[in-house]
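subagent[fold] <- orchestrator: predict structure for attached chain, return C-alpha cells only, no commentary.
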Amino acid sequence: MPLDSTDFEFVSSLVLKRSAIVLEPEKKYLVESRLLPLAQREGLSSIAELVAQMRANSLNGLHQKVVEAMTTNETSFFRDLNPFEALRKVVLPDMFQRRAAERRLHIWCGASSTGQEPYSIALLLREHFARFADWKIGIVATDLSTDVLARARLGCYSQLEVNRGLPAPLLVKYFQRQGTEWRLKEEVRRQVEFRQLNLIDGAWGISAADIVFIRNVLIYFDVSTKKAILQRIRQVMRPDGYLFLGGAETTLNLDDSFERNCFERCTCYRLRKS
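subagent[fold] -> orchestrator:
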C-alpha cells in the first residue's frame, strides 16, 4: 500500500528532527522505496505497520533505522576526480610544508558513507607522498549511518564499486579478491578511523582539522542548518586549513568567513585572514 499523507508527515518530521534532512512531498516515492525493504527486514507487512510501531513507542532503534534509511549514500572512489587532483598537486604539498615542524596532519571526511572517499585519500597518500610515511597522518571518517560505517570498516567492495573511479593498478596493488568482492589490504584500512557522527548534534569530537572533505551533504539541508554546520566547521578547522565541498555546494551567502580558492577545475575554501 502507498504511504498515506499522515504517515509521510510523521516520517518526514522524524527525519528532519533527527538528521535535519528535508523531505519534500514530492519525495514520497523515495520514502516508500527505502522504507518497504526496512519494514520487511523487521518482519512487518507494510510501511503503515512500520510507522504504527514507531508511533506506539518512544524513540528507539527502529526510529534510528528509519532515519538512516533516508540518508543518501551515493559515493565512489576518487569521485569527481578534480578535488583529488587539487589535493595531490596543491593542497597536500602546501600542508606538508606548513606542518614540517609538527610532522602531523589531520584530515576529516564528513558524510563518508561506505568509505570510498577516505580510502581514496589514503591511497593517494601512499602513491604520491610515501616520503612522509613517518609522519603522524590521521584520517577520520564520519557518517550518520551505523550500517554504512560497518561496511566501510570492512573495506569490501563489489566489482561494480571498484569499477567506479578506481584505477586498475591501484586495485591490483591494494586489494585482495574475496569471493565476488574485493577487500582493501589491512595496511590501508588501518589508515582510516571511522566514527558515527550526526552533523546536527552538539558534540562532533573533531578538532584541529587541516583538511576537511564534506562533499555532497549540505545540499540536503535547509539554509539555517547549512549555516550552522559551516559555523561548526570553522570551529574545528585550523586557521590555514582547506575545506572541500561538493560541486553544487558553496559557502556563498551562507558564511562570509570563507573565501574561494580555485585550482584548475576545482574550488575549495579557506578561512579569510582577519
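orchestrator: received. Logging for downstream: The chain has two domains: 5-71, 82-271. Residues 82-98 form the longest helix (17 residues).
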